[in-house]
Amino acid sequence: MTASLTPAGESRAPIVPIAAPRPVIPVRRAYSTPLQAVRRRQEALERLAARRIVPPMPQPEALRPVLVPEPAETRQYPAVPLTCREVEVLRTWLLVDSKSEAATDLNISVGTVNTHLARIRSKYAQAGRTARTKASLVARAIQDGLVVLDEL
């Protein structure tokens, strides 16, 4: 051991740490029989199952009587007399990205597609169901059962 110097120049004996005694931790001995181990395990599981962390709060909906909502009225729209070709042009145009693609798929010109769409729009307007945009034509086609939403 070497002596250490303090700031004033005095020598001091080195400090040696002394190990503190370790605390005694009681160890549970093994169960005497496997049957006792099973019983204690079952009792512990039953205590855990009986314990509740937060008591359940009564829900306001659970206290009210359940009311079955009335079925929504199915709205009847006036029928629009579209020809088979108009339905074909409308469906094709709704399923592709542009009028030119619809024209190519149907082997007609873009002008013919525009003519069919103009007639379709005028027929819907006469029935009191205006459809000025593609989105409104989609809505009318779905309402009339010409197109299913999954197809789009």
UniProtKB/TrEMBL annotation:
<protein>
    <submittedName>
        <fullName>Response regulator transcription factor</fullName>
    </submittedName>
</protein>
<dbReference type="InterPro" id="IPR000792">
    <property type="entry name" value="Tscrpt_reg_LuxR_C"/>
</dbReference>
<dbReference type="InterPro" id="IPR016032">
    <property type="entry name" value="Sig_transdc_resp-reg_C-effctor"/>
</dbReference>
<dbReference type="GO" id="GO:0003677">
    <property type="term" value="F:DNA binding"/>
</dbReference>
<dbReference type="GO" id="GO:0006355">
    <property type="term" value="P:regulation of DNA-templated transcription"/>
</dbReference>
<keyword id="KW-0805">Transcription regulation</keyword>
<dbReference type="Pfam" id="PF00196">
    <property type="entry name" value="GerE"/>
</dbReference>
<feature type="domain" description="HTH luxR-type">
    <location>
        <begin position="79"/>
        <end position="141"/>
    </location>
</feature>
<dbReference type="InterPro" id="IPR036388">
    <property type="entry name" value="WH-like_DNA-bd_sf"/>
</dbReference>
<keyword id="KW-0804">Transcription</keyword>
<keyword id="KW-0238">DNA-binding</keyword>
